[in-house]
Hints:
By secondary structure, the protein is mostly helical. It is built from 8 helices and no strands.
Amino acid sequence: MKENVLDVLMYLFENYTDIEFTDTGNHDALKEELSGAGFPEEEVKHAFEWLDTLAERRSQLSLFGATGVIRIYSRQELARLSTDCRGFLVYLEQLGILTPESRELTIDRLMAIEEEIDLEKVKWVLLLVLMHQPGSESAFAQMHELVYYDGEFLH
């Protein structure tokens, strides 16, 4: 079985939701646990780099407070994010589930995974981003329901 970065991140999310992954004091124990669970060392390393970069980017995105702004995608983003994926992001933003900041973090973190991006991966990355975004508890709860129950999540 070929494990990838997103598999490692999903495992961490499902098994360690009460741990702050960006706290480097937890990294050694978690890396040992992931290795014991069969994840390749290189993918575990990339997963922690992904999480560390998420924390760094989160602190840099205070410039995206404006609403009603149209997002223009770069050529690289257009090549990797299908129309369905981009449409899903716009839909969630229009509903107020995504903020411009969480949208940008999501796009950044999607572009950082080195695998094909589909709608399911977008949902998982959104969930991970919202989990680490202060003040996003309601949006996180809605995304959690969507990812785990794949039903209508908007009330």
